[in-house]
Design brief:
CATH class of the largest domain: Alpha Beta
Structural class: alpha/beta
Helix content: 25-40%
CATH topology of the largest domain: Rossmann fold
Number of strands: 19
Bound molecules: iron/sulfur cluster
């Protein structure tokens, strides 16, 4: 029976007895996480911390985040590698290729080398099912979390069934078939070691186990051939590469790289193309061989890789086409999205676009007001960033932030601004939903704001742009931190999925 990523994930989690499931919404993982019965968290770090607690007490746990969320949870994730955990813990990172609903195209596989943790890179929903079971197995063996990178292409794919397809690197691995029942609790004897000792233990014990698991999950089609050109592939591009009919080595793990198989493959081909997405992760590790081609060499475009891109790379290799010199994509060629016509906060953004100071905005709906016809915000350094950024501006700053972004991490910027007595005006848009990711309910921080800022200014929409402009100009003219809580109802939350 055909199976999609949502069913594949849910079946694997049920099979592994995963009790704690946490997520932060965002393209491309919202529907995947919701289908798995995950509970929303205010931010990714909190989601991981919740799951670390579950793991320590013997409950297997899952965190689902988008690629940008990996940056937010990276501190406890990196520490957990040497600290050790209890029951298996998996972080599923959805990489938005394109990107379609993100500020940044990012390759989460890079968190493997950064944290030292294993990263699995499934190609289709059947692989995802195997990868989840494999990840819990390796996580419990090394007593540290495992990462699964699921690209947006995988999340839109369908497999004929749960069994790995012919040539899947999971077809050779036994680990996912032999996951034990139940997880273990955290063993506090790890504190007998110093921080250096915990690092030594991790490198000496966990790394050989990870390398064994990675080396057991590779496949080559046809086996042990040799010649002028072969392909090393990981993730969804493996399927495109296999369809070309050229020799392909497919890897289930991006970290650690299955070095014995990869070095052996490199020794048998004059040139090796690396098919992966969205960045040159494997290619950059294999560059020193002097044999690989891919993005860094100008044969493949950045972002997702289609079969046509691989065919074009072969033409470049045979000098039928020139190397790729891509032009930066322009917003005017792609984006039509802007603030909804029916948005109750439109007059606020119009007012902000008329005020001649730098405006720090935030991810969410506000970021869409960054170019004509509504150029309200100037700076957006990610979700929850606006208050901190505005507090550093040379003249009195202006921040505009949604209520989910405030709960996510913006509240820390406000605490810092008040503590350091910064001059700024904070405009909090309160619609009580995460409007860009499907309208999930967000926490009501009104009482927290009132505690922090007793002279909180309430603004209930509708108000005209002129009224709002006059109010904000008045607050900009006086010293200190002013906070406006602008309340309205989003008539139609969006979803990028
Ligand atoms: S999704 Fe809702 S809050 Fe966001 S711009 Fe549209 S109407 Fe406004």
């Amino acid at each position: 029976m055909p199976i999609g990523p949502e069913d594949a994930l849910k079946l694997a989690l049920d099979m592994a007895g995963v009790v704690e499931r946490a997520y932060v919404p965002g393209y491309p993982v919202t529907s995947l996480a919701m289908a798995a019965g995950s509970k929303m968290a205010v931010n990714e770090k909190t989601a991981l911390e919740r799951c670390l607690g579950a793991s320590a007490s013997g409950r297997r746990a899952l965190v689902v985040v988008k690629q940008l969320g990996m940056n937010v949870l990276s501190d406890p994730l990196a520490i957990s590698a040497t600290h050790t955990i209890g029951a298996g813990l998996v972080v599923l990172a959805g990489d938005d290729l394109g990107p379609r609903g993100s500020q940044l195209e990012m390759d989460s596989r890079n968190y493997g080398p950064v944290t030292g943790l294993p990263v699995l890179d499934p190609a289709d929903p059947a692989d995802l099912y195997c990868a989840v079971l494999e990840a819990y197995s390796i996580s419990e063996e090394i007593m540290a979390p495992a990462i699964i990178r699921a690209s947006s292409r995988l999340l839109g794919a369908v497999s004929p069934g749960l069994q790995p397809r012919e040539g899947s690197p999971f077809s050779t691995s036994e680990a996912w078939r032999s996951l034990s029942a139940g997880g273990r609790r955290f063993d506090r004897s790890i504190w007998d070691l110093t921080a250096r000792g915990r690092h030594q233990r991790f490198r000496q014990r966990a790394h050989p186990a990870m390398q064994r698991a990675s080396s057991a999950a590779v496949s080559e089609m046809p086996e042990r051939s040799s010649g002028s050109l072969g392909i090393i592939a990981s993730g969804p591009p493996s399927i495109e590469a296999a369809a070309l009919g050229l020799p392909v080595l497919m890897t289930a793990y991006a970290n650690p790289i299955p070095w014995p198989a990869v070095l052996d493959f490199l020794s048998r081909y004059q040139t090796v193309m690396v098919a992966e997405e969205p960045g040159p992760f494997l290619e950059s590790h294999l560059l020193a061989s002097g044999k690989v081609i891919g993005r860094l060499s100008g044969h493949l475009p950045y972002g997702w890789v289609e079969k046509e891109d691989l065919k074009a790379a072969l033409k470049i290799l045979s000098n039928e086409k020139p190397l790729i010199e891509s032009q930066p994509q322009r917003a005017s060629d792609r984006y039509k999205k802007t603030i909804c016509d029916s948005c109750p906060f439109r007059p606020l953004l119009e007012a902000l676009s008329r005020i001649e100071v730098l405006v720090a905005g935030d991810a969410g709906c506000v970021i869409q007001a960054n170019r004509p016809p509504l150029p309200a915000v100037d700076l957006v350094y990610g979700l929850g960033s606006s208050i901190g950024v505005a507090s550093g501006l040379k003249t009195k700053g202006l921040a505009v932030i949604g209520d989910f972004a405030l709960a996510h991490s913006g509240i820390c910027g406000l605490i810092d601004a008040l503590w350091q007595k910064r001059d700024l005006v904070v405009v909090v848009i309160q619609n009580r939903v995460a409007a860009m990711t499907g309208g999930q309910e967000t926490p009501d921080l009104t009482s927290v704001l009132l505690t922090l800022v007793p002279d909180l200014i309430y603004v209930d929409m509708p108000r005209s742009a002129e009224q709002l402009e006059s109010l904000i100009r008045g607050e900009l003219a006086r010293p200190g931190t002013s906070v406006l809580l602008v309340r309205g109802t989003c008539p139609a939350p969006r979803t990028a999925e």
